């Protein structure tokens, strides 16, 4: 027996199944090689219910053909892509589409699903409750009846100062035109009048200060205060959209305003209750300033929701940047809302801030969405600018989990083309990064507090290193709640990750994780049986072929052995 290395972990079984002309930890492997780990370093088995077992063995897996095809939860899009492109041709960056009037019919929703939409986002700032309900139920119907796997996200409106000109469409503000900003409530529209939704919006501002609309769509100079209102002159002409956002600037610097508004408004809570009743998968919280509202909402969901709805925090203000790490730790994921963020920090800082947020999210193992203005020109034009394509490519190179379309899909005339640009650009850039080995080493933070969590984390780190070094075709992970699938994703392996779970909430949550294809299937506490069954089913569908190499990881809890955690790494070749 040869000692390979000090890799023995509590409750871990490591098996290499297959024939490899490779070396693992400096030791050559062949089909006749058998290894075992016998040195366990200062681990007290009495402190854990996990068993100490770390055996590496080499053999081949045979398919008995006993199981029937059809009981494996492959969604139709992933199945088609895998058959057409093979394992390494699968796109790893996830795609989020905002649903609006331009794409709310069931036919348009299905087109988006076919084209690669992983998550459908509903902006609760717009449209009626009935409209949102109709869209959610159409997506659920497509998933259930046609085999798609599209998760649903609602995005709260948040407490924010908004202005509205009263028209349902945009209004042009011409240079040197005089406008009146007021808190007076009135129906319809008035010429050159803009209504603010907060009584104290003009407090603390002076003549000569500037009002910037929607991050630069139009700019006004304050001429004078008139009661609670402001008389202003347009200095930079542009379009005023309904329900626009505004910021105040003085001497070229953002004028910090603390309106002391709660993060979640009464309307937001009503929308959240609605989302729970409609069985949504994600809630994105707008204008998060600190971790408290995220923690409060997660506690509320744990009591009121029967499923594990994930809570995402939107980073779109200076306050959220100052408390970034605590917000990331408290949330289930992050959305970088670059449009609103660009109102509060200098534009030239946006690229570096995006990179920093993405890196922090990877360190803390939280999915991150890059959002806002990725392909803004495609709201009106059928092709993007070259700069927009470069922007998308940069987000992919930073290993963001997901990219998001906003107005491009919601109100644009070329939503399908925009989604196609995201899909093809991300796929091409992923391939380029893989070929040029651009993967940068992540400074690994130890996340686990308990010993079993630390073990799972180390197993996943080692598993990805093995998968990349051995050049396996895919990673299979068997998981109840998605923890090990997300830990594998955190390391951004070259091969795709297939996460087998028997929990629908886990499947839909993993739709946002980089490189993970979630599959809903029955799982037992017989791990060998789980592996054998799923390999046979995938092989029967023609999606796996002879001599493919698969690395297998598991965190299944064995009911028959006093809830021992069965954590293992196996590598197998298909015969």
Compact description:
The protein has about 575 residues and is α/β, with parallel strands linked by helices.
Task: Lay out the secondary structure.
Elements: E1 12-16, E2 23-24, E3 27-28, E4 34-36, E5 55-57, H1 76-85, E6 94-98, H2 106-115, E7 119-123, H3 129-146, E8 151-155, E9 162-164, E10 171-173, E11 178-182, E12 193-196, E13 210-213, E14 218-226, E15 229-236, E16 238-240, E17 244-250, E18 253-254, H4 266-277, E19 282-285, H5 292-304, E20 310-315, H6 318-322, H7 324-330, E21 333-337, H8 338-344, H9 350-363, E22 368-371, H10 386-397, E23 402-405, H11 407-410, H12 415-435, H13 451-470, E24 474-478, H14 483-490, E25 497-501, H15 504-509, E26 516-520, H16 527-540, E27 549-558, E28 564-573
Parallel strand pairs: 1-28, 6-7, 6-23, 7-8, 8-19, 11-12, 19-20, 20-21, 21-22, 22-23, 24-25, 24-27, 25-26
Antiparallel strand pairs: 2-3, 4-5, 9-12, 9-17, 10-16, 11-15, 13-14, 13-17, 14-15, 17-18, 27-28
Helix pairs in contact: 10-12, 13-14
Enzyme class: transferase
Domain Pyruvate kinase barrel: 91-418
Family: Belongs to the pyruvate kinase family.
General description of the model:
The protein is an alpha/beta fold. Helix content is 31%, strand content 24%. The chain is built from 16 helices and 28 strands. The strands form six sheets. Strands 6-7-8-19-20-21-22-23 form an eight-stranded parallel β-barrel, surrounded by eight helices. Helix 10 (386-397) packs across helix 12 and helix 13 crosses helix 14 (483-490). It starts with 11 loop residues before the first strand and ends with a strand. 43% of the residues are buried. The model is unreliable at 1-70 (pLDDT under 50).
